[in-house]
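Design request, tokens follow.
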């Protein structure tokens, strides 16, 4: 890991001992859940049923060793380029080298900023108010910048390596097993948690649209894959309340009050090594603490829905403008799956590519080339946000 931190890591001050004990206990509980291991298949080529059972029981699963060294190296090269292209400060049109900054010419939201170790969403009305409780904001080092980028939306337009990972055949096989062969995209992002500066994400559930639907169930709001470039620890990773995806909307304020702090009782961290990919149900209660550790976390978020969950539904308005999602909208947003599959086939020609059923049935081809790359600009304006 050659990327250098801009400031020295810090800690949780007076709460450091309580936090350390909480992190240790959470990790022990996480490894006892029985929801981690490599992606496996049965004799018929289907994702192993015990994996799916564990995912639906816990609301998340850690797939070990999905991304190999070559793929991780590709992602790191793109990440370093992305970091050099960030605006030299918030809203600046240029990067530190005087070039047009990443996302400066995009209409869609791309870069999200926070003060170091801050919680930009907790206790606010942002994102439909789904983060009702603010997390502790430790004091950053004196030399820390005023604000840092912690989230990049529409990330597949900025990184061919991320686009190729999006089409990993094992991951798309899991997407089909969980959401059906006609699964559709949701949204994509890169989370960046730099040591001593990475922002927290307050406790929340992702779903906003289907809670009161008569057909609501434990999978209505889809899931996110979380690919880990450098791995993640209890200190910098995402924490989940196991089984909460089955409960409907959770009273987060009551849980925090009961716990006496944002260190929720019974929550566990998703602990990953480099190349692991976690799957997390979007209805599961989850969040992350400010990264006071010495470790980077870079997570590739790749979300997918059931087609039935978005067809004819009015979007939630968080990741894209509110709209009723029809077949044309879904087809247009889904084309990135076809481009990603072809891009991956070009990079890994000896790998058997995933066959995405909606395109195979329609006999549609998607060639990844410069014209396709240009067409992806602002693709996340069409995110299927529910």
């Amino acid at each position: 890991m050659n990327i250098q931190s801009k400031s020295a890591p810090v800690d949780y001050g007076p709460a450091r001992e309580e936090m350390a004990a909480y992190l240790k206990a959470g990790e022990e509980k996480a490894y006892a859940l029985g929801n981690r291991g490599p992606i496996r298949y049965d004799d018929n080529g289907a994702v192993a049923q015990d994996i799916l059972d564990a995912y639906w029981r816990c609301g998340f699963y850690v797939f070990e060793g999905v991304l190999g060294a070559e793929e991780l190296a590709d992602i790191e090269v793109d990440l370093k380029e992305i970091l050099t292209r960030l605006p030299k400060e918030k809203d600046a049109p240029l990067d530190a080298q005087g070039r047009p900054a990443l996302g400066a010419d995009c209409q869609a939201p791309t870069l999200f900023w926070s003060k170091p170790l801050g919680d930009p969403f907790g206790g606010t009305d942002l994102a439909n108010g789904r983060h009702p409780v603010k997390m502790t904001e430790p004091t950053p080092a004196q030399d820390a910048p005023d604000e840092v980028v912690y989230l990049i939306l529409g990330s597949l337009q900025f990184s061919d390596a991320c686009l190729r990972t999006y089409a990993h055949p094992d991951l798309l096989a899991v997407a089909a097993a969980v959401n059906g062969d006609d699964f559709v995209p949701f949204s994509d992002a890169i989370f960046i948690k730099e040591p001593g500066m990475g922002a927290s994400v307050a406790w929340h559930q992702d779903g906003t649209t289907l809670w009161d639907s008569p057909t609501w169930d434990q999978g209505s709001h889809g899931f996110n894959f979380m690919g880990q470039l450098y791995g993640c620890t209890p200190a910098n990773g995402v924490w989940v309340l196991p089984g909460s995806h089955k409960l409907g909307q959770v009273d987060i304020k009551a849980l925090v009050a009961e716990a006496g702090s944002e260190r929720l009782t019974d929550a566990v961290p998703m602990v990953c090594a480099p190349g692991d990919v976690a799957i997390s149900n979007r209805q599961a209660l989850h969040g992350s603490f400010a990264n006071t550790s010495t470790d980077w976390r870079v997570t590739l978020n790749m979300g997918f829905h059931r087609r039935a969950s978005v067809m004819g539904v009015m979007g939630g308005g968080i990741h894209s403008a509110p709209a009723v999602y029809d077949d044309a909208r879904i087809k247009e947003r889904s084309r990135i799956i076809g481009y990603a599959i072809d891009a991956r086939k070009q990079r890994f020609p000896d790998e058997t590519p995933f066959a995405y059923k909606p395109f195979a049935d329609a006999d549609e081809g998607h060639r990844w080339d410069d014209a396709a790359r240009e067409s992806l600009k602002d693709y996340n304006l069409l995110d299927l946000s529910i």
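Comment from the thread starter after seeing the answer: thanks! The mean pLDDT is 93.
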